[in-house]
Fold:
Amino acid sequence: MNICTKAQYTLSVASMLRLLRNRAILLAMAIEFARAHVLSRSAGHSAVKAAAYRAGEKLRDERTGRVVDYSHRSADVLVAKILLPEGADPAFTDRTTLWEAVEAREDEHNRRASAQLAKDYIIALPRELDDAGRLELTEAFARSEFVSKGLVVDMAIHAHSDGNPHAHLLT
Structure:
């Protein structure tokens, strides 16, 4: 897992905001919001649990032996998919395989409690766009800012009934 520096994170958020502004339909739309959050062991995080929550799925965390089940949230998840860079192992399109590999790599190379497992980018999406537009916008951003740079992205778009559509990009 690549860990973004503060400058890289700022550039990523700025790129998303530019992408939003450059779409003519979005000139008079919603307030822009993007935030990055590091998933770390010191905060008690699990990459498998985070992926299950964001995708609205049931996954088994082999490291802890626990099953995490967020399938009851699947109605709130518009889309959940994994985007792979060129040359990546196709086995990583399976969410469990991907995040178990991340957890195992951290176990091999960084046993400290401060291990950083992933970054979760949370990006507000305009309510004015339909579901297809939100998917297109999110996927274009993920591919241009992360996948093109060799990072795997576990992408989920949430469309809760509270009128707050947003995307999670786990890298």
